[in-house]
Amino acid sequence: MNSIALNILSLLFLASIGANAFAPVPKECYSTRVSMGLFDDLQLIFSDEGKKNRAEYEAQQRAEQEAAQREIMDRRRNPEKMAEYEEDVVKRRMKLKEDKAVWDFQQEQGVDAIEKWTTLRSEGKIKVGSDLERDPSSSRLGSEGLVEIRTDELLPYIDQGYVDEDADVFKNVKKMFGKK
């Protein structure tokens, strides 16, 4: 008795779905306009609206560049601003030099880089991917988001490299044929 009721319910369900297949589609649901991709893009670019948008964009870019150029010229004319700028440049260069000096442990001979790297990381001098600030706008489907720098350059063996001795293809081929 239970299976008869289930069969009736499934038939009613299928009948209700099938009835919509023969119903006319309202005109608002479909468009007769054909989109040609590249040609539509070209039409948008070379249309009056596209030309106006390009002109506005170029004018905005030109204004930004002119403002930056004026700032540079003002700084060059004013010795105080130039001294301040040069001081800022020296500070930035010193910071970069200090950041680079942290990685000198990779050039030490006879010491495993991972030990020093782990110590520096625990001290907070080295930050890796999980420690870095992530862009929240790029987080999707469980991803935490992207970082601004290459994280592979922050790993312990980046300057030393790693060579697997068994990865020599020709040596392995010779071994297969019994030669050493």
Average pLDDT: 81
The geometry reads as flat
State the helical fraction.
55-70%
End-to-end Cα distance, whole Å, is 79 Å
- Proportion of β residues? under 5%
Given as residue ranges, the uncertain stretches (5+ residues, pLDDT < 50) are none
Number of strands: 0
- Could you give a short account of the major beta sheet? none
Q: Given the helix and strand composition, which structural class is it? A: mainly alpha
Question: What's the tally of helices?
Answer: 6
Order of helices and strands: HHHHHH
Radius of gyration: 33 Å
Layout of secondary structure:
Elements: H1 2-20, H2 38-46, H3 48-77, H4 79-101, H5 113-123, H6 169-176
Helix pairs in contact: 2-3, 3-4
Short synopsis of the structure:
With 180 residues, the protein is mainly alpha-helical. Helix content is 56%, strand content 0%.
Describe what this molecule looks like in 3D.
This protein is an all-alpha fold. 56% of the residues lie in helices and 0% in strands. The protein is built from six helices and no strands. Helix 2 crosses helix 3 and helix 3 crosses helix 4. The longest helix is centred in the middle third of the chain and has 30 residues, at 48-77.
Fill in the keyword field for this structure.
mainly alpha, 180 residues, 6 helices
